[in-house]
Amino acid sequence: MRVPPLLLLSSVCCLTAACADLRGSEGSRVSTTQNVASSYWFRGVPRSLQPVTQGDLVIDTPLAVGGNLTFTTWFNLQLTNKTGDAAFPDGLGGQVTEIDLALSYSRRVGRVDITWGGIGYSLPQVAPSTRETYLGLGLDAIGLTHMVTAYYDLDLLDDYYLQYQATRGFALDEHWNAALELMLGYMSDSQAEFYFGTKRSGFSDLLLTGSLTYAIDANTSLFFEAAGVTVPDDELSNSLRQSGLEDSGMWFTLGAAWGL
């Protein structure tokens, strides 16, 4: 019998919580963010072109064997009844349209950061739920942090999505930090058929994000982000437009983060 990765990782998490030998000498760290964004896009598809609020809770536990076990819960709540030319339906103002639960294990091997985990996506009143497992490899080189992640849908689509990210951070002074991130996604034909409505593998999203963060103290910060996205593959882009959806856009995010 195949054990779902998310269930397997959950079992590991329970064992970790119960066994001090596995947890290591450091305690768990808890952090949370809350933001308001002018729109919400996912893998090149606009889910809402009207304001949303999003938040997460992250519990990070260092292990005695090395590395960290991380549990994350994330939500998206629609602030208006209208969503614009987007995938989510109208009429869900004030309601949660997505809840994600993720569990991952990460550690550094030499110069490479390795992360393996699972994500459960729940979209109440919007779309079917599904699960993905993923493997990410990160490396610092030529002044950038590079990350390549492969996601595989285990339930609904039984196919993959690949993502490359390049990030550069800038310390402006003791309180202010800035960052730029470039992300490129490649989608398999089954994923494209579900998200774009056409069965064609291709580059589904090219995203550029700039952020500015102000650290109030060691635990609390405020941040502002501006992001723009487009669909590089012409056929995937045309499919969105034929469905009455936008194939490119820009949005802004204002939020706060706290950790302990």
How are the SSEs placed, and which strands pair?
Layout (H helix, E strand, L loop, with lengths): L4 H14 L1 H4 L5 E9 L2 E3 L2 E4 L3 E11 L5 E11 L17 E14 L2 E12 L3 E15 L2 E10 L6 E12 L4 E12 L1 H7 L6 E14 L4 E11 L3 H9 L5 E12 L1
Antiparallel strand pairs: 1-4, 1-14, 2-3, 4-5, 5-6, 6-7, 7-8, 8-9, 9-10, 10-11, 11-12, 12-13, 13-14
| Rg, nearest Å | 19 Å
Portion in helices? 10-25%
Mean pLDDT: 92
Query: Any low-confidence stretches, pLDDT <50, length ≥5?
Result: 1-9, 15-19
Overall, the morphology is globular
Tell me the distance between the termini: 40 Å
Per DSSP, what share of the residues sits in E-state strands of 2 or more residues? Answer: over 45%
Number of helices: 4
Q: Give the strand tally.
A: 14
Order of helices and strands: HHEEEEEEEEEEEHEEHE
Main beta-sheet annotation: 12 strands, antiparallel, barrel
What do you see in this structure?
The chain is mainly beta and 260 residues long. 13% of the residues lie in helices and 58% in strands. It contains 4 helices and 14 strands. A 12-stranded antiparallel beta barrel has the order 1-4-5-6-7-8-9-10-11-12-13-14. A two-stranded antiparallel ribbon has the order 2-3. The longest helix has 14 residues, at 5-18. Mean pLDDT is 92; it is low at 1-9 and 15-19.
